[in-house]
Amino acid sequence: MYSHFIVLLTDFGEGSIYVGEMKGVILGINPDANIINLTHNVKSYDIVQASFLLKKSYTYFPRNSIFLSVIDPEVGSGRLLVAVKTRNYIFVGPDNGLLYPTVNEDKIEISVSIENKTYFLSNSSWTFHGRDILAPVAAYLSKGLAIEKIGPRVEHLQSLEIPNPIIRKDIISCKAIFIDNFGNIVTNIKRGSIVKEITSGLILVELFSNNRCYQIPITNTYSDVGEGKPLALFNSFDCLEIAVNRGNAAGYLKIKEKSELRLKLKETKKT
Amino acid sequence: MYSHFIVLLTDFGEGSIYVGEMKGVILGINPDANIINLTHNVKSYDIVQASFLLKKSYTYFPRNSIFLSVIDPEVGSGRLLVAVKTRNYIFVGPDNGLLYPTVNEDKIEISVSIENKTYFLSNSSWTFHGRDILAPVAAYLSKGLAIEKIGPRVEHLQSLEIPNPIIRKDIISCKAIFIDNFGNIVTNIKRGSIVKEITSGLILVELFSNNRCYQIPITNTYSDVGEGKPLALFNSFDCLEIAVNRGNAAGYLKIKEKSELRLKLKETKKT
Amino acid sequence: MYSHFIVLLTDFGEGSIYVGEMKGVILGINPDANIINLTHNVKSYDIVQASFLLKKSYTYFPRNSIFLSVIDPEVGSGRLLVAVKTRNYIFVGPDNGLLYPTVNEDKIEISVSIENKTYFLSNSSWTFHGRDILAPVAAYLSKGLAIEKIGPRVEHLQSLEIPNPIIRKDIISCKAIFIDNFGNIVTNIKRGSIVKEITSGLILVELFSNNRCYQIPITNTYSDVGEGKPLALFNSFDCLEIAVNRGNAAGYLKIKEKSELRLKLKETKKT
């Protein structure tokens, strides 16, 4: 009922020495742990983005994997640290909403507040609970420690809702919830949520940005438009994504993470 | 005749969550896979750079390693996905030329088109075949699946030639095929290809860039010139590299990846 | 007395293909090696920063881990490569001071100059001893090779002192020895070194930067001040750090790595 896979998600920045230190701590407790980086490139302090990415990705990991998530701007303050056992996984992290959408989707079996100092590093810092508390707790869990040993039960986790797009008249206000390294702009518009059935090639997105209006076809693949041309598609997260074939949409459209986007869907004939 | 080493090469950007998802998929199929990042920093969509880096690096990995390469701007279109068994390794990736120089060098034993859906994730996306098709196929191969099971034989792979420098009169036109994190500019001039024997210290490269001419000595090591001074050497890829001792040559010379460089070799006496 | 953990520290940049090649070489020699990235984001050529980060981090790793550190601007020149066995660990790297503060702290048992070509790659380059010499040597050590086999004893390692802050009158001159991905500015002021006892909330740091004077409270946590406000705290390295709550201090204060900072401590009442 446990596994040696520990999956890391942080906003420390890829290759941060803080990640290295956490790995050292884990392997000191469980030398057989297999530590996988989900990503460390979450935008600094962006709990909403992290909760989105976690929810979109956790099902790709082996059952019983332990997810260790540290996006924790309130480290050292009164916020709780929690361990949550769901139907298929274990999650540890700060109780700031980050875990909420995911553990609810996978169904919570038990949540505890991480309080038993037996499982902490001996000299815990004020500013790096990821290394000093969460990493050792995840390591002990990966060795089969019963979650109940870590601390008392918690009935209610801090809630967080990944924002939904808002429709007023025919204008959809959505968010650039994540921008990947290609500059692809991932929005919070889920497949099937706005338009019941979108037929490829027949619908354009009109994107209003920087006082311009861009007419962007909805396609299945990046290469359905010419090189350097914009497109929209439902991506591997099953969300609407604005991209540029072999280009960088975020640069092209001057859009940053967390930006509000205004879209309009427009049915048209292929020309 | 197979190994549990799976080596990843992509243009997803280091620390991309897409890489994390691929690792989750692989470990779900083969929990004993040992996944190694070759690099994820290939310039976006740059198949030539990726094919160069793969060819320069693959021999450093254990025999029978499985290379999973995803530089795939045409994902979801008609291009094939292939698995290629060579004398010493297995390579999987899109059939867009990326694998061509390497598998030819190592000698192809069998190539197949990846078509058997038994080995795909059940809900394959249009836009992320790396996660949904190539990762699971690599994982099954790492467990010993016979390559013939994956799909029908392919006789001809998409070809790609890593460009060679061109010499007109005494001017060498070459390419900045890769620039590393130090700003070292790696060219496509192979050791021994242009000048049969280059004697350290006796030859200068004249580099024409931005309407300036730089006289740069050919040395063995970075510290053969003063701090902040440019130099050229045959590097660990056995290619001519322009560098600055303890500096950043790409910044200093204002040269970007894929730029054309014009050089002239000039024999001289040490002064 | 040895372990299969090999911890990498370089200035190659995260995700560098050079790191990938080193891992390939290690696993070719010891397929059971467990390779952990401490960080590859050391500022290029910054031996002082690397020695600081290594000293602050090594104790978090399992006993007998082998640290393979490559910040080596003089590669190929006359500098030695060394392997050092300390009380609890083994360190390999160039003899340029990088290892000095750490191996002295952990107490040197034996140091050798890496010279026995039996343990090198067969065609060693001039410019990448990390891959061609240090990686294979670390791999053989991780399989239990006696350190004495690698080369002759070295009595004196190249020394390096991590600079201490300097106090003149009541002005403290310190260094931005490391800036993390959040923009937190880590200084070389150790806890307890300047002020014997710093009581949270009662002391301000006055930071002189860009002809401005910033009054910054010393706190325990980042969230002890309002969002976007600067603060100073003793961080997880036990050093004074200048930060901005949910912000980027280096950007806010326009401070770069290696910058000199001038501070003054000022006792005050909470207002």
Roughly how many Å is the radius of gyration of chain A? 21 Å
User: Hey, which two chains have the biggest interface?
Assistant: A-B, 32 and 30 residues
Distance between the termini of chain A: 57 Å
Number of helical stretches of at least 4 residues of chain A: 5
Low-confidence stretches of chain A: none
Oligomeric state: homotrimer
Overall outline of chain A = elongated
Strand content of chain A: 25-35%
Helix-strand category of chain A: alpha+beta
What is the makeup of the main sheet of chain A? 8 strands, antiparallel
Task: Give average pLDDT of chain A, whole number.
Answer: 93
Query: How many beta-strand elements of chain A?
Result: 14
Order of helices and strands of chain A: EHEHEEEHEHEEEEEEEHE
Helicity of chain A, as a percent range: 10-25%
Structural overview:
- Three copies of one chain form a homotrimer.
- By secondary structure, chain A is α+β, with helices and mostly antiparallel strands.
- Chain A has five helices and 14 strands.
- In chain A, strands 7, 8, 9, 10, 11, 12, 13 and 14 form an eight-stranded antiparallel sheet that branches. In chain A, strands 2-1-3-5-4-6 form a six-stranded mixed sheet, with helices on both faces.
- In chain A, helix 1 runs parallel beside helix 4 and helix 2 packs parallel to helix 3.
- The radius of gyration of chain A is 21 Å and the shape is elongated.
- The termini of chain A are far apart.
- The model of chain A has no long low-confidence stretch (mean pLDDT 93).
- Chains A and B meet through strand 2 of A and helix 1 of B.
